[in-house]
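Handoff note, outgoing to incoming analyst
You'll be picking up this chain. Sequence as last confirmed:
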Amino acid sequence: MANSSFPSVGILGGGQLGKMLCQAGADWHLPIHVLEQNYSFPAANYATVFHRGDFRRKEDVLEFGRKMDVVTIEIEHIDTEALHQLVAEGVKVYPQPDKIDLIKDKGLQKQFYADHDIATSAFALYAGAKEVEEAVVAGSLVLPFVQKARTGGYDGQGVAVIRYVADLSGKLLDVPCVVESLVDIAKELAVIVTRTPSGQVSVFPTVEMAFHPTANLVEFLICPAAVDSDTDVRAARLAMDVAEKMDIVGLLAVELFLTPAGDILVNEVAPRPHNSGHHTIEACMTSQYEQHLRAILDLPLGPTDLLRPAAMINLLGAEGHTGPAHYDGWADLLAIPEVYPHLYGKAETRPFRKMGHVTALGDTVAQARERAVLARGAVRIVTE
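Most recent structure output, in case you need it:
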């Protein structure tokens, strides 16, 4: 039975982020409903009530949302027209639908930074591959550059790095896109900011990210980031500036580039719990998942202090393996001290698919990182 002390919360999307939101809400016996296509999704067995439906279908979102007091998301690629209608009907939707519209279009997102004096890399918008090629030929676009699909990209999909003229014929995406100058990057950082409807703001400690060389998604994360105190403060202030200017409610993960000259640029943002905050479950006084729930319910935000230095790795499906998931080396993984694995419960593995993550803690970042490296080497996700 739902706890009448709390409003009902509806999550659009039943992936691993939805699962971990449900787990955070369970401590309060918070009634959480999840809308997803079927019971194979990670959050299905963790929701108070699971609703079958498609968050890309307006009718499904409306039917689901009208039963909720507060609606939130775990993925941006949803029918926001329905969310706008729910708001008009009096349902609280956080993050707000117009913020989701802004963020899920990378072109609009980049233009927002330009319009609000937020430091970001130089960019231009194009209708498709032909326009990009014509700009290169005309000399208005100079190699190398990064091309991003304006909509639909996720976990490294919808991104092309174009370094040479030969790449134009094989790598260009033929979709409306934003093309950014290739930034000289010393480090990739992330800061998670949380805002309530009442305007309370909290910031999690800055993290440093390392990306998988071929899968183009975060493979390794450390906290605190190996930056000086001035850089740390500037990263937090820039992330807060983005959240404040967007006037967003809920969690905003702000991904940043630190250049060799010490400049900090906003790469892109996500309006939801994020891969760069998984470690907060064990490493911080409040997890990003609990903090998001606090924010959308307009409850006091929890402290975000780091309890222990942390390193986090994603558990990715092994190359050459597609099919029912099997975890080799699980006992070896659990033998490592202060290692906390999280499996998402995805039945099928495929190369580079996010199947889980592991957070390792230690007395120092170096010790946590060493344990994370051991964890990464201990387990392989394969098919039997």
